[in-house]
């Protein structure tokens, strides 16, 4: 084996070993250390991160990618499945970033979940999730990817429903599972089509063998999978509902890693999509609709976690738009930079929530830049990175995406929606900062505001470094696969910045209106539309379950018996033969004389005819 | 212990008025199994007592051959719709002990269908959501018809359209190609 490949595989194996060791320790009946979470779980992730820097530096210096296939799982006449890992540009860059973010989140969680009696189990779930995510990201065949895909889905369910005594958390966990399941239908459809038509689930083989085939159907399946997992419009309600879980869960799963799995799948399969205009247009339009709709919903939310959740959904829509522009690498860059600042925004939210004694309503926060200056600063930096402030992390990916959007041959409405959503991003980001950090406090004086814990400060610091320099570092060290368009009119170049500044000024204007009250209530119709999340949960979560459950109950208890016994069985036979019997018996009126006369007449006629 | 139970069973079988295995079931022995659709006031009162409802509230499900018997028709309200602040016996289910269960109780638990009143009427919600989606689809269709792109022209090459580079003979005079206007 080539030394570089050996290095890649050894690092991944070591990473898995390091991450699985704390999990295996929990399977014995021995009691765990008091600080198992900190000493074992967090240290494991930190070590895994440091190990992952080795393949990263090797890749950055040599540019070499590798694919290794080892143990053969199944060999049939038409399909082979092996344990196969792909160390390419995407996985080698994403794994260290995911581990860095997870390390910070686990350290934060040692503070956040400190009072939870089952904290060790929580960390075990997070570690299991991380292992599943690494399997998904490094998979070279769809089967292995599916294992990781389902793994992250299940861990998401367990972690969202962490506080399972709360009915709303259970409902949210169920929503996550069901919506992801609908997406899985698409993934399985794609896998089945590929298995039957291309006879392979191996990424390299699929790309080569599908050159002349019409890939619309499997691509639609993959897009459905991404819609479910990455909360695109139509299958999006689970993501804001997932905020029922603890904040570290929201930070890890529902902003940085799990929700990008759908986009990651499309990025991996992008060579299949390059030549299929239907799939690209669908991605573009779906992404544009998602980003605009969820940004609209974020404008009027009052729960800080919900605002950040909708922000995540909006950025996922933007990533989908990028894929629709046939720029998978830019989407990947956005995944990487987004992980940093979104995780930081969630951790800041968590710090604020705990400081105010579990208060999540932004209308009951305020003035925190005096009381929790570090958290407020990180919140501001994260929001600025999110809006694409020049030269922070988000700028490098977001601005590149908007430039690509402006200079491509695109659906004009998709372009409009994306720009509007970019301005909305600035609006709700400023809303969060205004309500949380500015002004005077709107909470009770005796709040346990304390950010002086290194378990809070260090993760925020690390993620802040990432949010500021992450974009630059990644951009400086990678090679762009597609030549970007560098010449464009100044209006297009500055479009993203202009639109964000416009949003910022609008939001500032609206924020100053809160103390003047020009209108008693805002315009009710759009306000209700936005606050009630477009009425999607209200309609979908009532109609569809009611229809299917009622129908199921009716079929199971009444219809089967009624059908077989009354409509097609004994009663039906009785009901069918009764009229026949009554008609026949009505005909038999007992008119003997008439019958005899007819009989005699027939006899005479027959005799006469035969005689002649 | 088992012997005592067996003796009771034998005694019940021999003494019971109801024949067969139904005679063993406690509910059957006192005639509490599902009866038919109640017609007169006595049957209605007995059914209401059986289901722990007041006679005024008891309303049987319509008898259309579906086999509901005398089961009451309770209001179609979900558990989420009930008062969260009241001291229920089962606070997570928002239900009291021995309360009559809706036929579709499993559909109305808090994790499933929710019938609580919405801010905006149902028809308005449907109109706004599907109107929004329809509007978006229409606008995407228009956006496809009139896409946004930067103006481009055909590629221009110098040296008389690269006459020599494209294999043209150096002796032959190439046609003049001017890619500019002054």
Automatic annotation (TrEMBL), chain A:
Record's catalysed reaction(s): a ubiquinone + NADH + 5 H(+)(in) = a ubiquinol + NAD(+) + 4 H(+)(out)
UniProt GO MF annotations: NADH dehydrogenase (ubiquinone) activity; NADH dehydrogenase activity
Transmembrane region(s): 6-27, 48-69, 89-110, 122-139, 145-165, 177-195, 247-267, 279-300, 307-325, 331-353, 374-393, 413-436, 463-482, 494-514, 594-611
Name listed for the protein in its UniProt record: NADH-ubiquinone oxidoreductase chain 5
Residues in NADH:quinone oxidoreductase/Mrp antiporter transmembrane domain copies: 139-423
InterPro entries given in the database record: NADH_DH_su5_C, NADHpl_OxRdtase_5_subgr, ND/Mrp_TM, NU5C-like, Proton_antipo_N
Chain coiled-coil ranges: none
UniProt keyword annotation of Cell cycle present: no
GO cellular component term of the entry, any: mitochondrial inner membrane
Stretches assigned to the NADH-Ubiquinone oxidoreductase (complex I) chain 5 N-terminal domain: 73-123
Intracellular or extracellular location(s): Mitochondrion inner membrane
Originating gene: ND5
Enzyme class: translocase
Membrane disposition: Multi-pass membrane protein
Residue span, NADH dehydrogenase subunit 5 C-terminal domain: 428-609
Known role: Core subunit of the mitochondrial membrane respiratory chain NADH dehydrogenase (Complex I) which catalyzes electron transfer from NADH through the respiratory chain, using ubiquinone as an electron acceptor. Essential for the catalytic activity and assembly of complex I.
Key words, A-Z: Electron transport, Membrane, Mitochondrion, Mitochondrion inner membrane, NAD, Respiratory chain, Translocase, Transmembrane, Transmembrane helix, Transport, Ubiquinone
PANTHER family with a match to the protein in the record: NADH-UBIQUINONE OXIDOREDUCTASE CHAIN 5
Swiss-Prot/TrEMBL GO biological process terms: ATP synthesis coupled electron transport; electron transport coupled proton transport
EC number(s) reported in the record: 7.1.1.2
Family, similarity comment: Belongs to the complex I subunit 5 family.
Pfam family, one: Proton_antipo_M
TrEMBL record, chain B:
Region entry Disordered, spans: 64-84
Annotated GO CC locations: mitochondrion
Any one Pfam family match given in the protein's UniProt record, by short name: NDUF_B8
PANTHER family for this protein: NADH DEHYDROGENASE [UBIQUINONE] 1 BETA SUBCOMPLEX SUBUNIT 8, MITOCHONDRIAL, NADH-UBIQUINONE OXIDOREDUCTASE ASHI SUBUNIT
The name this protein goes by in its record: NADH:ubiquinone oxidoreductase subunit B8
Organism: Gadus morhua
Protein's gene: NDUFB8
């Amino acid at each position: 084996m080539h030394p570089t490949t050996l290095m890649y595989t050894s690092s991944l194996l070591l990473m898995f070993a390091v991450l699985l060791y704390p999990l295996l320790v929990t399977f014995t009946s021995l009691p765990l250390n008091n600080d198992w979470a900190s000493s074992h779980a967090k240290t494991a992730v930190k070590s895994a991160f440091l190990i992952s820097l080795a393949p990263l530096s090797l890749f950055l210096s040599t540019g070499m990618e590798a694919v290794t296939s080892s143990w053969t799982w199944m060999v049939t006449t038409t399909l082979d499945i092996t344990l196969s890992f792909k160390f390419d540009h995407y996985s080698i860059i994403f794994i260290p970033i995911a581990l860095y973010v997870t390390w910070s989140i686990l350290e934060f969680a040692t503070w956040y979940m400190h009072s939870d009696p089952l904290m060790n189990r929580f960390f075990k779930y997070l570690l299991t999730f991380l292992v599943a995510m690494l399997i998904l990201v490094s998979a070279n065949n769809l089967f292995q990817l599916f294992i990781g895909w389902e793994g992250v889905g299940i861990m998401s369910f367990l972690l969202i429903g962490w506080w399972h005594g709360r009915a709303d958390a259970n409902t949210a966990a169920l929503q996550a599972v069901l919506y992801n399941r609908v997406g899985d239908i698409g993934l399985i459809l794609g896998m089945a089509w590929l298995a039957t038509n291309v006879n392979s689930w191996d990424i390299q083989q699929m790309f080569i063998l599908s050159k002349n085939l019409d890939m619309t159907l499997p691509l639609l399946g993959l897009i459905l999978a991404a819609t479910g997992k990455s909360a695109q419009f139509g299958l999006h309600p689970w993501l804001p509902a997932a905020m029922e879980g603890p904040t570290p869960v929201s930070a890890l799963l529902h902003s940085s890693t799990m929700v990008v799995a759908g986009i990651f799948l499309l990025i991996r399969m992008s060579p299949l999509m390059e030549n299929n205009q239907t799939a690209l247009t669908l991605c573009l339009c779906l992404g544009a609709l998602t980003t605009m709709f969820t940004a609209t919903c974020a404008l009027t939310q009052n729960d800080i976690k919900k605002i950040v959740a909708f922000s995540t959904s909006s950025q996922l829509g933007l990533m989908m738009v990028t894929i629709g522009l046939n720029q998978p690498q830019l989407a990947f860059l956005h995944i990487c930079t987004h992980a940093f600042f979104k995780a930081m925004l969630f951790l800041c939210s968590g710090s604020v929530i705990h400081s105010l004694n579990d208060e999540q309503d932004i209308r009951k926060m305020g003035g925190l830049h005096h009381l929790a200056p570090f958290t407020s600063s990180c919140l501001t930096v994260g929001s600025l990175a999110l809006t694409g402030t020049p030269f922070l992390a988000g700028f490098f990916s977001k601005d590149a995406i908007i430039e690509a959007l402006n200079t491509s041959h695109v659906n004009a409405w998709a372009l409009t929606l994306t720009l509007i959503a970019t301005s909305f991003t600035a609006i709700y980001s400023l809303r969060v900062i205004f309500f949380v950090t500015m002004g005077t406090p709107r909470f009770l004086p005796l709040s346990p505001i304390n950010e002086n814990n290194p378990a809070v400060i260090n993760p925020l610091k690390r993620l802040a470094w990432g949010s500021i320099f992450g974009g630059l570092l990644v951009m400086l060290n990678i090679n762009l696969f597609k030549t970007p368009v560098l010449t464009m009119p100044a209006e297009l170049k500055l479009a993203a910045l202009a639109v964000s500044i416009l949003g910022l000024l609008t939001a500032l204007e609206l924020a100053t209106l809160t103390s003047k009250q020009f209108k008693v209530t805002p315009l009710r119709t759009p306000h209700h539309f936005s606050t009630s999340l477009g009425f999607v949960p209200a309609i979908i979560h009532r109609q569809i379950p009611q229809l299917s459950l009622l129908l199921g109950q009716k079929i199971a208890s009444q219809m089967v018996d009624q059908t077989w016994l009354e409509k097609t069985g004994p009663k039906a036979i009785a009901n069918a033969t009764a009229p026949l019997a009554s008609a026949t018996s009505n005909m038999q009126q007992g008119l003997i004389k008439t019958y005899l006369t007819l009989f005699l007449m027939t006899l005479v006629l027959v005799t006469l005819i035969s005689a002649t | 212990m088992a012997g005592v139970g067996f003796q009771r069973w034998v005694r019940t079988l021999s003494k019971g008025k109801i024949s067969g295995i139904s005679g063993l079931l406690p509910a059957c022995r006192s005639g509490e199994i599902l009866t038919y659709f109640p017609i007169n006031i006595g049957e209605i009162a007995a059914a209401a007592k059986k289901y722990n409802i007041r006679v005024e509230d008891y309303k049987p499900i319509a008898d259309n051959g579906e086999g509901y018997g005398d089961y009451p028709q309770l209001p179609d309200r979900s558990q989420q719709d009930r008062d969260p602040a009241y001291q229920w016996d089962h606070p997570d289910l928002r239900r009291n002990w021995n309360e009559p269960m809706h036929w579709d109780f499993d559909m109305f638990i808090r994790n499933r269908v929710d019938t609580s009143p919405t801010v905006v009427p149902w028809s308005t919600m449907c109109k706004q959501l599907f109107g929004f989606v329809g509007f978006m689809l229409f606008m995407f269709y228009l956006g496809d018809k009139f896409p946004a792109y930067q103006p481009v022209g055909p590629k221009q090459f110098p040296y008389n359209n690269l006459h020599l580079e494209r294999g043209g003979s150096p002796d032959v005079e190439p046609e003049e190609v001017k890619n500019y206007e002054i």
